[in-house]
Design goal:
282 residues, alpha/beta, 8-stranded mixed β-sheet, globular
């Protein structure tokens, strides 16, 4: 892949993060409620100790890192980081809301982490590495900044067939011509959806001990209208494509999705299953 192509991809993903930050903040309660099992897994496996320095990459609203900061205590420190200034401001507001004091907010590119080698005790990255143009480079940088005995915990989305919340709308948008087919070799929500790929990437970055686990989640929505609104507000390029769909076509899209989501109907709406792949490595 040429330098020009990768730079273009980085620019696009940066623009997407900047554009979606305000609506991501609005949907933060829904996101955190949905991925609670993932957040709990990451914190349990990282097991931050009092006095630790923890780095969160691609932190978004920052909630996972803030939980680590609580466990690290007054003598510890959280570096809550993101490549997007708009996303970093979302985390800053959330940290102020929670009253987190042992945190530094920094703009950091995970593919070129501006920290000294052996400077942190743990690294968290929740649904971030999968969207990085060169995730192998980002994982090597993660290994570089970790102190001996430190560990990284990460989460990505599992295989497409186990995540219909994303694939139902993605397939519908592609069929309707509103979204190009996904690049199987490029960054995206399912680019690390194979446990063997995760293990190989971590081993290639220098990690010796790697363990992965599938963690189920459930996306609970009242109806298809709410489903579409949440996707439009949070789902990166899929969300931005959906935002651009004209009203009459969006209504037709909703009818298509009523059928696609019918297997997940409940008395109160829909409960759409999903699976995250989580990993811990040291």
């Amino acid at each position: 892949m040429s330098t020009t192509v990768t730079d273009d991809q980085r620019r696009v993903f940066f623009q997407i993060s900047e554009a979606i930050a305000p609506t991501w903040e609005k949907r933060r309660p829904f996101i955190e409620r949905t991925v609670t099992p993932v957040r709990e897994w990451l914190i349990r496996e990282l097991a931050p100790r009092a006095g630790d320095t923890v780095l969160e990459l691609a932190a978004g609203a920052g909630d996972t890192g803030f939980e680590a900061a609580r466990l690290a205590g007054d003598r510890g420190r959280l570096l809550s980081t993101d490549l997007s200034p708009a996303m970093l401001e979302v985390a800053r507001r959330r940290g102020a809301e929670l009253g987190v004091r042992n945190v530094d907010f920094r703009l950091i590119d995970a593919e070129a982490i501006a920290l000294e080698a052996d400077s942190v005790d743990g690294v968290i990255c929740r649904f971030g590495y999968m969207l990085m143009v060169d995730c192998a480079r980002a994982l090597r940088e993660t290994r570089r900044v970790l102190r001996p005995g430190g560990r990284v915990v990460l989460a990505v989305w599992g295989a497409p067939d186990r995540n219909p919340f994303f694939t139902a709308i993605g397939a519908a948008l592609v069929r309707a011509g509103h979204l190009p087919p996904p690049d199987p070799d490029g960054p995206g929500p399912f680019s690390m959806g194979d446990p063997q790929r995760i293990s190989a990437l971590l081993a290639g970055a220098g990690f010796r001990s790697v363990r992965t686990e599938a963690v189920p989640v459930a996306f609970v929505v009242r109806d298809v209208a709410e489903y579409l609104d949440i996707v439009a507000d949070t789902a990166g390029p899929i969300g931005l494509a959906l935002q651009a769909v004209p009203g009459d076509e969006r209504a037709a899209l909703g009818a298509t999705l009523e059928q696609a989501l019918a297997p997940f109907a409940t008395a109160g709406g829909f409960e759409v299953p999903g699976v995250a792949l989580c990993a811990v490595a040291g």
